[in-house]
Amino acid sequence: MNRFATFAIVTATTLAACAPAEDDSSAGEAQGSTGAAPAAAAVGHLPTEAERTAILAAVQGIFDALATGDGEILREIMHPDVLMHSVERDADGARSSSTSTRDELIARLEGSEQVLTERMWDAEVRVSGDLAMVWTPYDFYVGDDLSHCGADALLLTRNDDESWKIIALSWTRLQPPTCELHPDGPPG
Known about the structure:
The chain has helices at residues 3-17, 27-31, 39-42, 49-68, 71-77, 102-111, and strands at residues 78-89, 95-100, 116-120, 124-128, 131-142, 145-158, 164-173.
């Protein structure tokens, strides 16, 4: 397992365990002299509006790259060693999973003759320092045809210039008719 895979597992576990306890005796120390808790701690690591916008722009970059066939976008927003993993269950109930690299994704993307459309909605975003997590449902079309849907789960780190880079991306692949579709209907 590479260091980013280990990081992703540890991070996911740590974020879940970091919810503030109901009776946290150290809370007064973290509040400082004003008695006000830090904003992130008070709301469960919710991002500022500027952070949320920047984080979701990085995620949207994946979808923009798919739609335009532009691998350079992925090179810019994804770490070279990004961990990507998909999980699916076929109609017979058999589970399967696959992993891929950024370069493999770029090769598939640049070799596609069809327009690939992936859309997210109702994204949940959490931030702790320079680490962000996004969970969002999505639907995926190849040309005009619904291919699959599911949920994307991403980990991102903040760069020195305050932009965000994707370090891990996992997703489920559900097949129609079990798909939850974008509230705006099919892409048009």
